[in-house]
Every structure is written in structure tokens, then in C-alpha cells.
Design goal:
The complex is a heterodimer of chains A (351) and B (300).
Chain A lengths: L1 H15 L2 H21 L7 E7 L4 H12 L3 E4 L4 H7 L4 E5 L3 H4 L3 E4 L4 H15 L24 H31 L1 H6 L5 H29 L9 H25 L3 H19 L11 H7 L3 H14 L4 H25 L6
Chain B lengths: L8 E10 L2 E11 L4 E5 L6 H8 L7 E6 L2 E2 L4 H7 E4 L11 H11 L8 H11 L12 H13 L5 E4 L8 H16 L3 E6 L10 E6 L2 E6 L1 H6 L5 E5 L3 H9 L3 E5 L2 E5 L3 H7 L7 E5 L3 H12 L1
Parallel strand pairs in B: 3-8, 3-9, 6-7, 7-8
Antiparallel strand pairs in B: 1-2, 1-4, 4-5, 9-10, 11-13, 11-14, 12-13
Classes of the chains: A mainly alpha (351), B alpha/beta (300).
Membrane topology (chain A): Multi-pass membrane protein
InterPro entries (chain A): ABC-2_transporter_component (IPR051449), ABC2_TM (IPR013525), ABC2_TM_bact-type (IPR047817)
Family (chain A): Belongs to the ABC-2 integral membrane protein family.
Chain lengths: 351, 300
């Protein structure tokens, strides 16, 4: 046991004396969270539009004022619609005909080279412009945006980014740290010692579990205080589920380390090899439901997919363990399998 | 079971290949308890492979080996408890300090620095002034001393040192061998490898190795004694021409500022160098390097 603790302490020395590791450990999550929270968003805000008012009457002026007042649109003072579209200056144009009062028609032109934005903008505009129904009875749809009434876009990203960051950091750091021992030749000495090789694997995992949990706390703090994403469910459950996910990623890292011989390869496999599948198959950017069957089947093998579901349920919806036990079971199964394989595969000799 | 009466290290018909290359070919030798045994040979002779087989890091393709009475395959755990191993490449944690490295390895072997300090005292005192320095920032000689301390801290029965003096300055090399002599007095069996022929004389027994085979195995004195011919050192004003001239008739190679010639009589030699000026011919006693070259030629 004392050997184990000393080994763990040694790992901490390695981490805190290496700037590169520290940067990956704490710089990467901060950057990712802020990037996804602020910079990368699918929301449409302050879209530039041109309004051509040929009517210039009270009704048209009133509508223009309404459009201008919304945060979605910025009215561009230009007149030449075609040129503005070609230059890509504007997303949308609204044309009031000269006989607006009688005709009651407005033309909305949108740049559909980006179909999602075009659709969103025309929807927004129609909602603003739609006059109260002239029908004898009026249907007022009462919409309620569950779990995220303010339509805060970060809410969707935060669980995804948590999954992404933990996945990459855990796998990368663990795999690199074991391969480094091989590369530096220290593995030779570790093996020629009474220390059980299995403990080498576990002693490598423990420090990174602790550090990853620190990372998790960092991401949570950033989410709550910077991005206004609430934590509705039990914090304890969230931590327990995260620990499980972290352990599964650590095991994956250990597995990668057992098949690679150099730090570069380990880094490349765990960073590049994990980043893309995680982004694609977790479902926080591209909805899994839209994918063809083979891809949906593949996505089942990505641990972050299950973890993403759990975090969304617990953190945003405030659900308890009963809502996520199935996903937890899948994750636990993956963890046990990966850990067993990586311990089994860990070589007690060189070559 | 350990058999105290038998030798500390026994190799029987050990063979190891890496793909197409044969690193060690049907090798057998043994090292007695408390002996300082040297494996002498150039790079690629198979020295490191032997060390790795004996320290249970590699499995031999054929043959059996025991260390301190334990089989290297079956009883690898027992062996790992009782040997000290210093790999050829400096293999301590460069980002840990001298002290931290030592404490780490002491704990790893289930002991403490305090408990076995007497074992390493003499060596450690030399690096103690730098104990808070990171291992990666030490000089070559210091690194070797630290690595030796780490390999000794658990009082091993057998110490394996793979080219401990490669890349170390002449003074540190000398100091290192003096340390080994003192360790030997404590009863530790030491197996050491080196590519430097001049270090062979410092071992009790040596095995001269080339291409995975042993050319000769005996005490350095006996190996030198077995040199069959007279050996002459020759020098002249034009060494290059001299080498060419003598090569036609006898074995001849550069050795320091002289050429070493063997296989012919002194009179014959004097005849061959007639055309040269400033000729010096003297009879010399063969060194290990002469023996090695001789064995190599015979082997080929």
C-alpha cells in the first residue's frame, strides 16, 4: 500500500512539473468551454438584413420599428439587395411594396446557401410580422420551452463539452504517461522490481482520476458562473456518474498505451482518434437520430454518448438515478471491459 | 528452490532472435556467488539481450537460465525481488530530484533509504550535495552514481550493470570501478558489461563476446596467458605504408601509436620493414584487446 501511495505521489510530481501536461489539463477545458459557450453557437443573433420600404406609410414604419427592436436583426442602411447578397453582407431582405396598405403583402428574401439560418430567420420574421388573426376565433399557442426557458444555447453544449473534454484529457494523459515510462526506459526498472505490474496500471489511473475530477469541477464552475447553465439534479449523482465515465476513459487510455511505443503515437491516437468520434457520435452537435443505421450502431460503442445523455438528464433536467440507470449500466459495462482488457494486456515483460 | 551451493547465475544454451537477427546464439556460462563477472564485447554483441533475459524482461527462444537459483521464466517474481538492474540507457525519472528518485525506488522495493543507507553511503555521499537537483540536470558520472544507488538500495543478491561506464568521463569511470570492487567485498554478485577492453582487467572473470557468441571465457590473466604467439609493437616514419607492407605476411593492426604484429618471428618482421626509416620493434605482452582481435580472426 505504501508503495502504491509513493507511486501516486510520483505521478503528481510528473504532472505538476510539466507545463505541457498542466496546459492540457487546465487550459484545454477552459478554452473549450468558453469557445463553445460564446463563440461557437448555432443561435442566430444580430443577423444583418436590408429593409426596402417602398410604401413609406404608418403601417410599414410600425413593422420596421418592430423588426428593429428584436435582438435577432440588425437593419443595414443599404438599398441594393442583390449586391448585398452577393457580397454576403446580409442574410435576409424584407421588401414592402408601394401599395402595402391595400395589398397586405411583404416579400422576404433569404440567403439559403445556409439553409438552417435562412429558415430560422424567415420564421423569426414571419412571427414578428404576422398580424393578429382575422378569423372569428383566435388560437393562441402557448409554448413552453422545458428545461431551458430562456433558450440558452450553452445548455446544449455544456454537457457535450464536458464529455468531450473528459474523454480527450483522460485518454491522452494516461496513455502518454505510461508510454513515457516505456520511452524513457523507466518501465524496465519498474518491471524488475517486486511491485506488481497491475499496480503500475492502477497507480497511473488514480492521479488522473483525481485530476480529471478537478477538471470536472472547473468546467462546472465555468458553466454555472460564466455561461449561466444551471445544475438542477443531485451534484453527488453527477459526480458519481462522472467518475464512472472518467474511469472508462482512463481504461481506454491504458489500452492505447499498451499498443503504442512512442508518446507521439499515443498522443495522436488519443487526441485525434478520440476527438472526431466523440464530436460526431456523442450527439451534441449532430443529432444521432438523423444518422443512417450503421452510424447509429457505431455510436453505441462510444462511451461519451451515454455519458452525454446522463449529464443532460441529471444536470439540466434534474432527473434522479432512476432515469439514467440503463445508461449507467452500459457505461459501467464498458468500463469493466476496458479496464480488464488493459490490465490483462499490460505486459509483465518487454516486447 | 534456491540452491545456495550452485552458481549465482547460470545460462544453458540460451538463444534469442529478433525476427531475422540472432542476438544470442546457444550461449552457456555461469557466474559464481560473489564474483565480479564481465561481459566484454562491442555494440551488438548481445550483451544487453543477455541482461534482459536474466532480469526476466525478455523470454529466451530456447535454453534455460537461473538467477540465484530461480528460473527466469517460472520464478520471475522471486528474481525481481532480489536483483538490482541498471539498464544501459539512463533510466531514472529526469524530472524528479536525486532524493526523490532514491526514495521512490527504495519504497518500490519495500525498503527505506535509512534502513539500507550503509549499502550506498559511500556512493551517495558523492552526490548528496546535489540531492535537490533534478536527475535530468546531473552530469553523466553523477547520473551513473545515482542509478547505481537506486539499483543497490534494496541490497540485491545479484547486480546487473549494463554498460555502466559508457558515455562517462575517464575519472568517473575509474571511480565507478573502484566502487564495484568495494561492493564485491560486501558479497554481492556483480555482472557487468562493457565495450571497453581496458576495463576487462578489472573483472575477476570475463566472457569475450561477438555476434551473440562467447569467444572465450576465463580470468583476464588466463585469457592473456593463452595468447599463442609472440606479439610485437612496430613503429616507423610511414605508418600507413608499414601497415600495408606487414599485412601481406602477418596479422597486423593499429594499436595506439604502434602497430601490433603477431604470427611471425622477430627476424622475419625485421626483414619485412627494411625499406622503412626510424623503425622501432619491441616485444610486448598481449592485452585483452589483442586477445579479442586474435579470437575474432580465428572465429571468422
Amino acid at each position: 500500500m505504501k508503495q502504491f501511495l509513493v507511486f501516486v505521489r510520483k505521478e503528481f510530481y510528473h504532472v505538476f512539473r510539466d507545463r505541457r501536461t498542466l496546459l492540457i489539463l487546465f487550459g484545454l477545458p477552459t478554452m473549450q468551454i468558453l469557445l463553445f459557450g460564446y463563440a461557437l453557437t448555432t443561435e442566430v443573433k444580430n443577423a444583418k438584413i436590408i429593409v426596402v420600404d417602398q410604401a413609406k406609410d404608418a403601417a410599414s414604419q410600425q413593422l420596421i420599428a418592430k423588426i428593429n427592436a428584436s435582438t435577432y436583426f440588425d437593419i443595414d442602411p443599404g438599398e441594393d439587395i442583390e449586391a448585398a447578397f452577393k457580397r454576403g453582407n446580409i442574410r435576409c431582405a424584407v421588401v414592402f411594396p408601394a401599395d402595402f396598405e391595400n395589398e397586405k403583402r411583404i416579400q422576404i428574401v433569404a440567403d439559403a446557401s445556409d439553409p438552417n439560418t435562412a429558415k430560422t430567420l424567415t420564421n423569426y420574421l414571419t412571427a414578428i410580422i404576422q398580424p393578429p388573426s382575422a378569423q372569428p376565433y383566435q388560437i393562441i399557442p402557448v409554448t413552453r420551452m422545458l428545461y431551458n426557458p430562456s433558450l440558452n444555447g450553452s445548455m446544449n453544449f455544456v454537457p457535450g463539452v464536458i464529455a468531450l473534454v473528459l474523454m480527450i484529457i483522460c485518454t491522452t494523459l494516461t496513455s502518454v504517461s505510461i508510454v513515457r515510462e516505456k520511452e524513457n526506459g523507466t518501465m524496465e526498472i519498474l518491471l524488475v522490481s517486486p511491485f506488481n505490474p497491475t499496480y503500475v496500471v492502477l497507480a497511473k489511473a488514480v492521479p488522473y482520476l483525481v485530476l480529471s475530477l478537478l477538471d470536472f469541477i472547473l468546467i462546472l464552475l465555468l458553466s454555472v458562473f460564466v455561461l449561466d447553465v444551471p445544475i438542477r439534479g443531485s451534484l453527488l449523482l453527477l459526480f458519481a456518474e462522472s467518475s464512472l465515465f472518467i474511469i472508462s476513459c482512463l481504461s481506454l487510455g491504458l489500452l492505447i498505451s499498451s499498443v503504442t511505443q512512442s508518446q507521439q503515437t499515443a498522443m495522436l491516437i488519443s487526441m485525434m482518434g478520440m476527438m472526431l468520434p466523440t464530436i460526431l457520435f456523442t450527439g451534441f452537435i449532430f443529432p444521432l437520430e438523423n444518422m443512417p443505421l450503421p452510424l447509429r450502431i457505431i455510436s453505441n460503442f462510444i462511451p461519451s454518448r451515454w455519458y452525454y445523455f446522463i449529464v443532460k438528464a441529471v444536470m439540466l433536467k434534474g432527473l434522479g438515478f432512476w432515469a439514467v440507470w440503463k445508461q449507467t449500466l452500459v457505461l459501467a459495462g464498458m468500463t469493466v471491459t476496458l479496464l480488464t482488457i488493459s490490465i490483462k494486456r499490460f505486459k509483465i515483460r518487454l516486447a | 528452490m534456491p540452491q545456495q551451493s550452485s552458481d549465482a547465475v547460470i545460462l544453458t544454451n540460451i538463444t534469442k532472435t529478433y525476427g531475422e537477427t540472432t542476438a544470442v546464439k546457444d550461449l552457456s556460462f555461469s557466474v559464481k556467488h560473489g564474483e565480479l563477472f564481465g561481459l566484454i564485447g562491442p555494440d551488438g554483441a548481445g550483451k544487453s539481450t543477455i541482461f534482459r533475459i536474466l532480469t526476466t524482461l525478455l523470454l529466451a527462444d530456447a535454453g534455460v537460465a537461473t538467477v540465484d537459483g530461480y528460473d527466469v521464466v517460472k520464478d520471475y517474481r522471486e528474481i525481481r525481488k532480489r536483483v538490482g538492474y541498471m539498464p544501459g540507457k539512463f533510466s531514472l525519472y529526469q524530472d524528479l530530484t536525486v532524493e526523490e528518485n532514491l526514495h521512490f525506488f527504495a519504497t518500490l522495493f519495500g525498503t527505506t533509504v535509512k534502513e539500507n543507507y550503509s549499502m550506498i553511503k559511500e556512493i551517495y555521499e558523492q552526490i548528496a550535495p546535489f540531492k535537490t537537483r533534478r536527475a535530468g540536470k546531473l552530469s553523466g558520472g553523477m547520473k551513473q552514481k545515482l542509478a547505481l544507488c537506486c539499483a543497490l538500495i534494496h541490497r540485491p543478491e545479484v547486480l546487473f550493470l549494463d554498460e555502466p561506464t559508457t558515455g562517462v568521463d575517464a575519472v568517473s569511470r575509474k571511480e565507478f570501478w573502484e566502487m564495484l570492487q568495494r561492493l564485491k567485498q560486501q558479497g554481492i554478485t556483480i555482472v557487468v558489461s562493457t565495450p571497453y577492453m581496458d576495463e576487462a582487467d578489472l573483472c575477476e572473470r570475463i566472457a569475450l563476446m561477438q555476434s551473440g557468441s562467447i569467444l572465450s571465457i576465463d580470468t583476464p590473466a588466463a585469457i592473456k596467458h593463452a595468447y599463442p604467439d609472440e606479439l610485437y609493437a612496430v613503429k616507423s616514419a610511414n605508418m600507413h605504408q608499414l601497415l600495408k607492407d606487414i599485412r601481406q605476411y602477418a596479422s597486423c593492426y593499429a594499436f595506439g601509436e604502434y602497430l601490433h604484429v603477431s604470427g611471425i618471428s622477430e627476424n622475419a618482421l625485421a626483414g619485412y620493414v627494411k625499406g622503412h626509416t626510424d623503425v622501432i620493434i619491441k616485444k610486448v605482452a598481449p592485452g585483452i584487446e589483442d586477445c579479442f582481435i586474435r579470437l575474432l580472426l580465428k572465429h571468422e
